[in-house]
């Protein structure tokens, strides 16, 4: 091998490498368009399903509208990626490549906005709506349990009221025996004590009567929750289940509101205030001035005790009222597309598949960019003689022989310029 052959060996190797890559590209181009069309058509089908989930009405026009949108999406995806696959790999300057890359990024965002989220709605829309139903059931269960626990805490105030009532009943019994004011019988002090013990007994009975209503409301709420859970996982179309779910949600909201109203803590707080402030003092009925003085002193002690017991009840009622209230919950039906967006984190595989079916051609664009760059590197900087094929060489020889057979053929209609005729030789 001569030195000249050794010098040109890398060039020949690069040329063979470039021809090999061009052969592969020619074979791949034979079905790339079909593959791109299949991807665009598949995306259009899922886009159609996603659009139909957003449209409430049914009929020919609705179907036509959904088909038109999905067809526009399919054509747009096919044309966009066809442009990118043809033009971007052919760019040689950095500025042109960056410009087309930015265009491709903008187009990809547009494709995701007009197609991918609808594809995700078609792929996981029903599951996302069921996820929304399950989250709503959990929220309602939390609200029901919190309302019930606060109401039960209010019912527990019955024991505090009972202790205060027992205190005044014991004192009235002692007064009846003459152990408080020193005057046996049922005089003024006895009447004050029995007055307040009767008030507390009435409040105690009122609290006890509500216990049955509280338990009934809680049991009904649990029954509604059970039906809502069954609807969230029941097989069948999710649209019909959502309607029945909404009806049950309204019923459960009413039961939660009823449990809030059954809370007796505000009632106990008002009763404690009345226990201290509204006292009807009877006339002192002792026969002597000393006896009346003892009755007055005892009544004043009873009023101090009343104030202490009222403060204790008010504090207990305030503790119950300070407990966190049940959260106000309002069930809002969601479409499949809205549910997929709200619970996107739970459906990452569906989102990935929906976006991949639209943006997969971007990978092919980058593959073509790398391949074309390798072809240009293998060819190097060459003149037209280096890249001329046998067919091109034959065509050039035929043109040269034809030119030699008809040299210097004059133009039969020479142009006129400035009133003078000039003969211009035709140049082949």
From TrEMBL:
Domain of life: Bacteria
Basic and acidic residues: compositionally biased ranges: 417-428
Region (Disordered): 404-428
Keywords: Coiled coil, Membrane, Transmembrane, Transmembrane helix
Entry coiled-coil feature ranges: 154-220
Membrane-spanning residues: 26-49, 61-83, 95-118, 351-375
This protein's name: DUF4407 domain-containing protein
Organism of origin: Maritimibacter harenae
């Amino acid at each position: 091998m001569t030195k000249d052959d050794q010098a040109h060996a890398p060039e020949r190797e690069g040329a063979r490498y470039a021809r090999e890559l061009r052969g592969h590209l020619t074979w791949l181009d034979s079905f790339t368009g079909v593959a791109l069309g299949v991807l665009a058509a598949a995306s259009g089908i899922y886009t159609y399903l996603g659009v139909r989930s957003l449209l409430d009405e049914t009929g020919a026009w609705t179907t036509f509208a959904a088909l038109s949108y999905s067809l526009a999406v399919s054509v747009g995806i096919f044309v966009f990626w066809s442009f990118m696959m043809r033009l971007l790999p052919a760019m040689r300057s950095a500025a042109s490549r960056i410009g087309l890359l930015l265009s491709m990024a903008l187009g990809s965002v547009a494709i995701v906005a007009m197609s991918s989220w609808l594809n995700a709605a078609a792929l996981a829309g029903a599951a996302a709506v069921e996820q929304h139903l399950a989250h709503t059931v959990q929220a309602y269960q939390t609200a029901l349990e919190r309302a019930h626990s606060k109401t039960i805490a209010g019912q527990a105030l019955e024991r505090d009221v009972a202790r205060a009532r027992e205190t005044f009943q014991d004192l009235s019994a002692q007064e009846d025996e003459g152990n408080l004011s020193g005057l046996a019988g049922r005089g003024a002090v006895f009447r004050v004590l029995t007055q307040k013990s009767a008030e507390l007994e009435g409040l105690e009975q009122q609290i006890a009567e509500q216990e049955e209503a509280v338990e009934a409301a809680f049991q009904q709420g649990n029954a509604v929750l059970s039906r809502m859970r069954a609807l969230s996982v029941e097989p069948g179309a999710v649209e019909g289940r959502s309607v029945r779910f909404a009806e049950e949600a309204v019923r459960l909201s009413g039961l939660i509101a009823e449990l809030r109203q059954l809370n007796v803590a505000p009632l106990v707080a008002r009763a404690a205030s009345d226990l201290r402030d509204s006292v009807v003092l009877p006339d002192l009925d002792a026969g002597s001035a000393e006896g009346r003085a003892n009755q007055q002193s005892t009544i004043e002690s009873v009023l101090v005790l009343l104030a202490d017991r009222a403060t204790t009840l008010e504090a207990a009622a305030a503790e119950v009222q300070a407990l966190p209230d049940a959260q106000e919950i309002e069930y809002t039906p969601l479409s499949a597309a809205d549910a997929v967006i709200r619970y996107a984190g739970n459906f990452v595989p569906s989102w990935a598949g929906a976006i991949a079916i639209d943006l997969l051609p971007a990978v092919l664009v980058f593959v073509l960019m790398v391949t074309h760059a390798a072809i240009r590197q293998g060819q190097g900087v060459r003149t037209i003689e280096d890249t001329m094929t046998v067919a091109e060489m034959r065509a050039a020889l035929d043109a040269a022989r034809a030119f030699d057979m008809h040299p210097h053929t004059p133009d039969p209609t020479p142009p006129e310029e400035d009133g003078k005729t000039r003969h211009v030789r035709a140049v082949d």
